[in-house]
């Protein structure tokens, strides 16, 4: 419990509207988008500037309570759940775009700006911010940086971290620091900008972000390819890359996903096929024409059952939107959805699909698989019911077996969702005790008192 | 002094040919390519495997002497000079390319492979490793990673670090760790792969590197533009980028550089002009044609005095080679060359040139400026004589003033050469005492005993 005096002190610093302390309001800030995980914070603050973040952090330090930074709470690994209570520091009222620099091709924004708002603002100036996480309509750019979010276009254009040029942040001791700048090259000292990316709010609180922009592609073409078995779809992905074509997007949906999506959005996806690939190529018109032809040639060679070219921008957008709906569509028909984030080197795509099918049968589970096939980044999702203890046990056994294979193939337990709380036990299996030891020392270097995200830093041994 | 017993122990572990201990042989390993800096090591070892690196490090730990890792010694900030003596651990006999993975578009190599050898090996398989530091004929890929080396093509393609997928390294405690992998996305825990990049051998010894490859551009076109004053060349660079054209290369040489290069390579560069830009566009033929036309349009608008299109590949290669010779060409005519590595946001290019001219006049110095104009990364080089104390004092004052401006404009004291010994005093001016404090804590997290590069970690206060 936080005393009235401390609440008043926070109100004095941040303003009445920016401090939440009633139990019913606190309840909703104890969740993110990860099923089955929640913990009520003791207090929630909404700082409106870097200075207010510092002020809130100083008060928390003085009182000795933990601080959990948060954006929109669209995270999928429980990284913004205040598992030890204390203060949730919510950055989504810091939502101003501070500058679009057309000469240096950069945008500087506060951490709480919604990703799609930022992308649209720069597009209005004829510039392009490529990373497009499926949650872009609600996620914040600060959250994207903290998770190093991917997206549909990341195959060709790279992930959030590839666009970060500078970060202004508040360190756990309350001091501020800016790392990086608008120079496109900078090797002055250790690159802790890059260390902060994907650090999930455990090392510092990011308040302002400068991102690199690029000229937008002149045109694009979207196509769908249908397959009568999913391994063939995986093979198509590998062979397109091996043909030295890097599409901007290469997304997969399996039969379960297709049917859930079609139930939801009703755009005429074929319910009987085993899998589809949503492929987009973009760039100069001549490149688009050649790459489109090259992709179609590979698709015919591997025997896709049908290839459908989007007739226009609206249809292409509709297809991408349908793909972005995959998780929501499954959540609609299933009480719980356990989604994972397994990523393998692309050459293991077909094997990964086969393994998912094999394990789903072994554990008698309904699994819908979709994801960023071109990146080797899949989201096998178990449709389940939290209340069914036996089913949940089988679901966890499924992922346990799957990750064993993924790691054997040189893959990772998280391609884009982070470790958070949900995957702590898998992390050590990937990076080993030596890796965990170095991570612990890095955490201590930044946050010796363990004020940020205690009890849910990646490698915390304690259960909550 | 290192005892005969310890030398014998090292010989037993590494083999006789891989241990150097005679004073005359040690002398040459006390230099890198930075003028005015040298310190003789006590012993030099050439490990031939990761295990041998571990063995050498363990012996050094036991004896309590410092270890300085080194590649070819082409570094330009003194990062591989063993300023506290001890062991130089030279990786250039670990020079095997271990795998070219055509399915996943990766190459894995030992740290001592020469950069150009690696680039040629992957090109023979129809793949492309873009980063091309000017020193690529002699530099090692391990050294490139440790400095996050840039190069001529980095404007469009990014720097070395943008291609690093995995690093195998030996930590200061002698344990090995692999960070990253062949998955194109990986957010499992802190990204210490990215922290190791540009850490200048102060955190770990990199032994194997996996790099991302891309399909090579189909074609390219090289052109030269001449200018009657250098600020106009700077303006041309900004305007080409503002026109949303990202050439693969946009290099500048001023009059002093042009004349030194022409004296050396005699390819008919015009001696009377104030500056030239070497510009290359690459990609699909249609893109090359359009971008080339777009670049020429801008060049005419800003009033370049002449535009010359390379007639063929040989001429283009000759021009790039001439540019790569810039430093050697100046070193040929001047007893000493003090080269710096100032980088500014691109919009400050013209001002930076003006400032360099102003300061050269103020301090009565001959300064040749060349570099990666498209990246805002310049190498103003003072032609001087180490033995002339007054001139050296003026040269240092020149750089001091210049960096004040560079930092005022949001630039960096090192775009690609690193901090090493040469720029320690500038680092704190850039990152502040808070930044230095975090860097010190990171160093301690990796290397609590300070065995790697002691006395020349970026922020060491001690002089040597």
Secondary structure layout:
The structure is a homodimer of 464-residue chains.
Chain A: H1 4-14, E1 19-20, H2 23-28, E2 43-45, H3 50-63, E3 67-70, E4 87-90, E5 97-101, E6 106-110, H4 115-123, H5 141-147, H6 154-157, E7 164-170, E8 176-180, H7 192-196, E9 205-212, E10 219-227, H8 230-242, E11 249-254, H9 255-265, E12 275-283, H10 285-301, E13 306-309, H11 313-324, H12 326-333, E14 336-339, H13 349-362, E15 366-372, E16 377-384, H14 389-408, H15 424-446
Parallel strand pairs in A: 2-4, 3-4
Antiparallel strand pairs in A: 1-2, 5-6, 6-9, 7-8, 7-9, 10-12, 10-13, 11-12, 11-15, 14-16, 15-16
Helix pairs in contact in A: 1-3, 8-13, 9-12, 13-14
Explained architecture:
Chains A, B: Its cofactor is FAD. Chains A, B: One of its GO terms (molecular function) is oxidoreductase activity. Chains A, B: Belongs to the FAD-binding oxidoreductase/transferase type 4 family. Two copies of one chain form a homodimer. Chain A has 464 residues and is an alpha+beta fold. Chain A has three domains: 87 residues, 2-Layer Sandwich (Uridine Diphospho-n-acetylenolpyruvylglucosamine Reductase, domain 2); 116 residues, Uridine Diphospho-n-acetylenolpyruvylglucosamine Reductase, domain 3, CATH 3.30.465; 190 residues, Vanillyl-alcohol Oxidase, Chain A, domain 3 (3-Layer(aba) Sandwich). Helix content of chain A is 38%, strand content 19%. In chain A, the strands form three sheets. Chain A has a seven-stranded antiparallel beta sheet, with helices on both faces. The radius of gyration of chain A is 22 Å and the shape is globular. At the A-B interface, strand 8, helix 7, helix 8, helix 10 and helix 15 of A face strand 8, helix 7, helix 8, helix 10 and helix 15 of B.
């Amino acid at each position: 419990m936080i005393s009235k005096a401390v609440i008043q002190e926070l109100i004095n610093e941040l303003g009445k509207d920016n401090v939440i302390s009633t139990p019913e309001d606190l309840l909703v800030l104890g969740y993110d988008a990860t099923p089955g995980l929640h913990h009520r914070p003791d207090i929630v603050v909404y700082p409106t500037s870097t200075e207010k973040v510092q002020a809130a952090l100083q008060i928390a330090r003085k009182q000795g309570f933990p601080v959990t930074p948060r954006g929109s709470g669209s995270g999928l690994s429980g990284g913004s759940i205040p598992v030890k209570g204390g203060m949730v520091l919510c950055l989504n009222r810091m939502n101003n775009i501070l500058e679009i620099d057309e000469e240096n091709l950069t945008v500087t924004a506060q951490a709480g700006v919604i990703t799609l708002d930022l992308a649209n603002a720069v597009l209005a100036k004829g510039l392009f911010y490529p990373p497009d996480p499926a949650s872009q309509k609600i996620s914040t750019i600060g959250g994207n940086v903290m998770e190093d979010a991917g997206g549909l276009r990341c195959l060709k254009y790279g992930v959030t971290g590839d666009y970060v040029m500078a970060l202004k942040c508040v360190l756990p001791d309350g001091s501020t620091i800016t790392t990086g700048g608008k120079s496109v090259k900078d090797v002055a000292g250790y690159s802790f900008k890059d260390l902060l990316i994907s650090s999930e709010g455990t090392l510092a609180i990011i308040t302002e972000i400068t991102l690199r922009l690029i000229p937008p592609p002149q045109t694009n073409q979207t196509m769908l390819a249908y397959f009568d078995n999913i391994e063939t779809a995986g093979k198509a992905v590998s062979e397109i890359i091996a043909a030295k074509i890097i599409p901007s997007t290469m997304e997969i949906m399996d039969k379960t996903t297709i049917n859930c999506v079609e139930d939801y959005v009703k755009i005429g996806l074929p319910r009987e096929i085993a899998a589809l690939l949503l492929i987009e190529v973009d760039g100069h018109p001549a490149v688009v024409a050649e790459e489109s032809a090259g992709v179609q040639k590979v698709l015919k060679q591997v025997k896709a059952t049908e290839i459908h070219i989007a007739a226009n921008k609206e249809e292409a957008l509709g297809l991408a939107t349908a793909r972005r709906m995959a998780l929501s569509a499954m959540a609609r028909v299933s009480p719980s959805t356990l989604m994972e984030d397994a990523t393998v080197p692309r050459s293991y795509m077909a094997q990964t699909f086969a393994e998912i099918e094999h394990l789903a049968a072994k554990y008698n589970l309904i699994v819908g698989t979709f994801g960023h096939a071109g990146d080797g980044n899949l989201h096998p999702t178990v449709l389940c019911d939290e209340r069914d203890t036996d089913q949940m046990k089988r679901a966890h056994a499924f992922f346990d077996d799957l990750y064993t294979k993924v790691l054997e193939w040189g893959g990772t337990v998280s391609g884009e969702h982070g470790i958070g709380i949900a995957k702590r036990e898998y992390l050590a299996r990937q990076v080993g005790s030596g890796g965990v030891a170095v991570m612990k020392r890095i955490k201590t270097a930044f946050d010796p008192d363990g004020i940020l995200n205690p009890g849910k830093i990646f490698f915390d041994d304690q259960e909550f």
